């Protein structure tokens, strides 16, 4: 590696979320210089490496094996081996494995560096047209346990909310959010970002639920952006609560 980065042993390297041109020159250099690439799926990352003309040893590092492999990786990193951690698409550690390895590296005084680059929620947020001054990234909602509790907690959220969702759950999620946040809440669904069939659809939560429920098939990773609770909604609810209190007297 270059002299300025000699002490870094682990690099978090963002990879394109679709369009293969969305990778930085620095990312290409780091992938070419490290000793090993840690990949969520070695087949997916292998195609990217081949596209870039790079050949490196690759190790599988994903949600189902990270706890079993982290100690072995730490031993190698502690001896000075350099590694780049990549996910199938986007920035590793955002709704993808990476946190555990980073935390353990830092606890052992091993230097970690994160390169800036592609991530899906930023273009989806900006394309939604909602306020981006303050927002909350929620990632994937719980599939079963804790899902309703989390939805209720979000009912009072005034910031723009960003979710990742799978194609087979998007309709259910839109319907449940409509029930919790109200039928007038505006939202935006982006899919296939940076790809040939990129699409962003805006509307109320029920409108979006109906739109996607009426499709024969839904493909691609999805980013859902939901407008935060507006001041008018809070005023209406407070008035409703006050009227209920008076009627109870």
UniProtKB/TrEMBL annotation:
Pfam families: TP_methylase. Its EC number is 2.1.1.198. Residues 10-209 form the Tetrapyrrole methylase domain. Keywords: Cytoplasm, Methyltransferase, rRNA processing, S-adenosyl-L-methionine, Transferase. GO terms for cellular component: cytoplasm. It catalyses: cytidine(1402) in 16S rRNA + S-adenosyl-L-methionine = 2'-O-methylcytidine(1402) in 16S rRNA + S-adenosyl-L-homocysteine + H(+). The keyword S-adenosyl-L-methionine applies. One of its GO terms (molecular function) is rRNA (cytosine-2'-O-)-methyltransferase activity. It is found in: Cytoplasm. PROSITE patterns: RSMI. The keyword DNA damage does not apply. Belongs to the methyltransferase superfamily. RsmI family. Catalyzes the 2'-O-methylation of the ribose of cytidine 1402 (C1402) in 16S rRNA. This is Ribosomal RNA small subunit methyltransferase I. It comes from Hymenobacter fodinae. The gene is rsmI.
């Amino acid at each position: 590696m270059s002299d300025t980065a000699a002490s870094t042993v682990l690099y978090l390297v963002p990879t394109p979320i679709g369009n293969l041109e969305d990778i930085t020159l620095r990312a290409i250099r780091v992938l070419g210089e490290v000793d090993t690439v840690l990949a969520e799926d070695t087949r997916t990352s292998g195609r990217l490496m081949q596209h870039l003309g790079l050949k490196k040893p690759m190790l599988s590092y994903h949600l189902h094996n990270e706890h079993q492999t982290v100690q072995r990786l730490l031993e190698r990193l502690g001896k000075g081996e350099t590694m780049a951690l990549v996910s199938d698409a986007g920035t590793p550690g955002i709704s993808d494995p990476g946190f555990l390895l980073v935390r353990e590296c830092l606890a052992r005084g091993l230097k970690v560096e994160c390169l800036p680059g592609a991530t899906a929620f930023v273009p989806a947020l900006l394309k939604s047209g909602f306020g981006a001054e303050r927002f909350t990234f929620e990632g994937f909602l719980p599939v079963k346990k804790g899902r309703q509790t989390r939805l209720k907690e979000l009912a009072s959220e005034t910031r723009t909310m960003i979710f990742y969702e799978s194609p087979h759950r998007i309709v259910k999620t839109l319907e449940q959010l409509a029930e919790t946040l109200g039928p007038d809440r505006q939202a935006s669904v982006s899919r296939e970002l940076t790809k040939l069939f990129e699409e962003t659809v805006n509307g109320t939560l029920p409108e979006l639920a109906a739109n996607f429920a009426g499709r024969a098939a839904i493909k691609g990773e999805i980013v859902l952006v939901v407008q935060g609770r507006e001041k008018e909604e809070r005023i209406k609810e407070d008035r409703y609560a006050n009227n209920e209190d008076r009627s109870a007297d």
